[in-house]
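Q: what sequence does this backbone want?
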């Protein structure tokens, strides 16, 4: 089975002492309408961090800082194996402009289970939730 290596940004925003994270909604393809953490494929010669900075700039028109590594999700879709490096991130410059996603929203820890996530992204939810509750 082919392995696809990708990266995902769990972008945090503090509002009134509560942490919110950014979710984006797919506007195309097999998983259209499902929610995910923004990111994308790692190109040949890139590190995970380089790919994530590039992908977020391309998709959301913002510059991020990568705060720390969270976890690597390994997930088998029917047609391929996904290996997704996930990082806590913060926006350091720019205002979000959706260039590929159909929608985006900031969600609180209480709303993590309220949206229809892509299967691989669901695996990250519990780690994020536990981290935000600490």
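A:
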């Amino acid at each position: 089975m082919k392995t696809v290596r990708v990266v995902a940004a769990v972008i945090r925003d503090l509002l009134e002492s509560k942490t919110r994270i950014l979710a984006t909604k797919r506007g195309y393809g097999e998983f259209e309408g499902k929610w995910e953490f923004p990111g994308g494929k790692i190109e040949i010669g890139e590190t995970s961090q380089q790919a994530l900075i590039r992908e977020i700039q391309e998709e959301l028109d913002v510059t991020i800082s990568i705060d720390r590594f969270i976890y690597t999700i390994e997930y088998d879709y029917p047609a391929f194996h996904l290996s997704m490096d996930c990082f806590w991130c913060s926006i350091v410059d720019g205002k979000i402009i959706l260039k590929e996603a159909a929608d985006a929203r900031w969600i609180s820890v209480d709303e993590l289970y309220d949206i229809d996530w892509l299967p691989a992204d669901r695996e990250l939810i519990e780690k994020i939730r536990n981290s935000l509750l600490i």
